[in-house]
Amino acid sequence: MPKTITQRLQSANITEAAIIDETFDGISNEVIEKDLQTFIAALGRDDVLQEARAICGGLEEPEDFDLDCAKTLWVARNSWGGSTSS
Prior knowledge:
Blueprint: H1 5-11, H2 29-42, H3 46-55, H4 67-75
């Protein structure tokens, strides 16, 4: 049976530890930027653009898509329809 984190730290004589949680801060810009151009190209399809507009207000043309909009879409990813997820 695995030891708890506290037990592992104690057995290693570690009395202080820091937890860095940046892994859980959502999607990073680097991850978004990697596929951003491909997604922007998909925004040329009316169905994808309309769905993105519904989630990310202020999106008139595919070229208006930016990292802020990408982050908004990422947060709302569970509410996407078929268009943006394919």
